[in-house]
Amino acid sequence: MPYKVLLTQHADALGQAIQLGFDQSGFMELMLLPQHLNWGDETAVSRWLDAAKPDAIINTCGWSDDGRDASFQAIVEPAKVLATLCSERQWPLLQLSSYRVFNGEKSGFVEADELEPRDEVGELYRQAEQVVAEAPQHLILRLSWVIGWQGQNLLTRIMLPLLEGAQAEIVSERRGSPVSHEDIARVVNALAKQISCGSDNWGVFHYGAADICTEDEFAVYLVKRLGDKAEVLGEVVDVSGKSTEPLSAALGYRHLMDCFGVQPRTWKQAVGNELALWANNNPMAVDQA
């Protein structure tokens, strides 16, 4: 019998990347939770999970690259229900979280740093982490900036205006360790494999790129690489004076690497991989370059 891993949210860009990663590995069976499931009805969720009988659960409910649709019902409520049910059934639970649980005032953050959410979205992630931590077999994976060729994220926020002849706004001093959808899928798959093999490393882990960049450095590199695939019509504009958001979203990776052997990738590799995926899915843009 294959090891069955259930993914709660799969219609978004990250969910699609995780599905593809599991399909390509072929080691485990990925099950998909119905998107219409009412997370406020613990009985209904329990009934569905007991019928599905997963061996582990990956919870990305409510998670997004930019947090714009975050709410208690979308993030905290599913985490609470899943933590309760996983505790009762002794199922491992992997919960995605975010750099937003930190205030952004340090140059970078490690797992032991005190949580001080930078905004309302960060507070929701903190609450979700708190309830998930009550499950005996839990992994909380905090992510730095997440980028991808589709969805709302730093890469598309800069790339799309450049292609449309508009201004792409950045805050030059913001810093992070960007990771791609495809790379997160790789990491999640690796963690699930090790859980299936009996790994007993539970707790909180960070994943960020092997190196750190500012939004300015990210934009300069993106423009260079994008110019190899399409015509760049717009321009990058620094709007640092307009921003009040904390500067740092940089997370480390050493604890994850030490416990699971997961090697980080550079943010430039992440950009290159996502642009290649974009080009494969937008051949007209490449043909016109």
Number of DSSP helical runs: 10
The radius of gyration is 19 Å
Helix content: 40-55%
Mean pLDDT across all amino acids: 93
Tell the overall outline. Answer: globular
Low-pLDDT runs of 5+ residues are none
Strand order of the largest sheet: 2-1-3-4-5-10
Strand content: 15-25%
Distance between the termini: 49 Å
What order do the helices and strands follow? Answer: EHEHEHEHEEHEEEHEEHEEHHH
Structural class: alpha/beta
Describe the largest sheet.
6 strands, parallel
By DSSP, the count of extended strands is 13
How is this structure best described in words?
- The protein is globular, with a radius of gyration of 19 Å.
- Helix 7 packs across helix 9 (267-281).
- The protein has a 6-stranded parallel sheet, with helices on both faces. Strands 11-8-13 form a 3-stranded mixed sheet. A two-stranded parallel sheet has the order 6-9.
- The chain contains 10 helices and 13 strands.
- Helix 4 links the parallel strand 4 (93-98) and strand 5 (138-143).
- It has helices at 13-25, 42-52, 72-89, 120-132, 154-164, 181-196, 215-226, 254-260, 267-281, 283-287, and strands spanning 3-7, 28-32, 56-59, 93-98, 138-143, 146-147, 167-170, 175-176, 179-180, 203-207, 213-214, 235-238, 248-249.
